[in-house]
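quick one
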Amino acid sequence: MSLLLRGGTLLPLKDHPRPMWGDLLVSGTRIGALGKVETVPLDTETVDVSGCVIMPGIVQTHIHLVQTLFRGLAEDMTLLQWLRTRVWPLEAALDEASLRASVRLGILELLMTGTTTVLDMGTTKLGDIVAEELVRSGLRARFGQAMMDAGEGVPPALLETTRGSLDAAGALTKRWHKASSGRIGYVYMPRFALSCTRELLEATTQLAKLSELLVHTHSNESVDERNAVVMATGRTPMQYLLDTGIACDRTIIAHGVHLDDSEIDILRTTKTSVAHCPSSNLKLGSGIAQVAKLRNTRITVGLGADGAACNNQLDAFEE
Ligand SMILES: [Zn+2]
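structure w/ zinc ion:
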């Protein structure tokens, strides 16, 4: 079975960076031809896409599918207040059905706006439901349960023991890593320094290294969060992530809005990547990341809409 997209504006974004008018033939799961397609296989469905753009799927490097139902429920707050009074209690209240609905709605919104690959952070439970829906969706995904074994304002229903958090991540890795022929992968996701013990961060570093998995966490998002990390650890957030081994070339930190020069240097030397979430940073009043400076320092920067609760939409074009 083949699919011919006839007469669109092609944006290959590679090899031929200039847009061109043409067709795209999909043969099975592969691009069969690009440009003016003259020879069309017999069992081909043709779709007229004149007036449309054909481009590679967008990759979003920071998403929370479990928060899609919270859209509009946590307005006009700064990060720590937003987490403690709204988002964590809402996550704690999710059951199997509501979490599944949230993930499905989020995936639908992503696909309808051109995103085909995500790095998704869940909550501290029901990671199997997220995985089932990702498998079903056709999205390419790296996902993980959030890990939280400490922290002010964390509802009891979300709080894990250190051992429990590590075991849950290990079990999910066994069940879902490289699922769907590698389309789905597991990632260790300590939520952020303020909700994880040092013991959890250090153990995560070891396990991720042993199993060659990626690590994803939030860091340097707002001034208050940054100050709270300094108060709690006596280190800047990136220095603390370096001390605990989290900062490394397998790690992507979400946000990186408030980084001093020594922290940018840690990102550079450890090859830690950054997921930039501009709409979320503006909605929560966190600030504006120094993206040009990061990129000029040769730090890899991706883009993410974050969650619907701190953006209100998941459309990468808006970012
Ligand atoms: Zn986030």
